[in-house]
Write a structure and sequence with these properties.
The structure is a single chain. The protein is α+β, with helices and mostly antiparallel strands. It has one domain: Gcn5-related N-acetyltransferase (GNAT) (Aminopeptidase, 3-Layer(aba) Sandwich). It is built from 5 helices and 7 strands; from the N terminus they run βαααβββαβαββ. It is globular, with a radius of gyration of 15 Å. 29% of the residues are buried.
Length: 167
């Protein structure tokens, strides 16, 4: 790579391209989920990420999307996690094209996203991942996340992680 990708927030005009990128990444990572339809956050992308309390960033190089990440308010759907009374966001949709991996781009995307959280009074950044995603748990641990729960489901083994924000 001759130039570092640029990282910026999504504009309304970019939404169709962003959706295509994210849905393709989702289909590659989770082939069984592609039949489940459009996730709510993506179906309401503009309301969620541009006008709501969510945020979404892209990495581009030479005009092409090469990475993405977002966060949205955590919806308390996992009863074993008690974030009652806290302002919690869920980190979602991190994906970097294979040829842009292992050069720090995912960490740059996360750092840029985390930098937006204090202005919104975010106290905890939450995410979940899975052991079958190569390097994911180690990556998030390096970003300062700690494992708070691992589900026993034999297929997904959903690994819940969080990071408290310093205000």
């Amino acid at each position: 790579m001759n130039h570092r990708p640029s990282i910026h927030g999504v504009t309304v005009a970019e939404i169709p391209e962003v959706l295509a990128f994210v849905l393709q990444a989702r289909a590659e990572l989770y082939p069984k989920l592609s039949a489940a339809g459009m996730p709510a956050d993506l179906g309401h992308f503009e309301a969620t990420y541009l006008h709501g309390d969510g945020r979404f960033l892209l990495a581009r190089q030479a005009g092409r999307i090469v990475g993405a990440i977002g966060y949205l308010p955590y919806d308390a759907r996992f009863p074993q996690l008690d974030y009652q009374g806290l302002n919690v966001v869920e980190v979602v949709r991190l994906f970097v094209l294979p040829e842009f991996r292992r050069v720090g781009l995912a960490a740059e995307l996360y750092a840029a996203l985390a930098a937006l959280a204090p202005a919104q009074g975010v106290q905890v950044m939450y995410l979940h991942t899975h052991p079958f995603l190569p390097g994911a748990i180690d990556f998030w641990t390096r970003q300062g996340f700690e494992i708070v729960d691992v589900e026993t489901d034999p297929v997904w083994q959903t690994t819940h992680m969080h990071r408290r924000c310093i205000s």
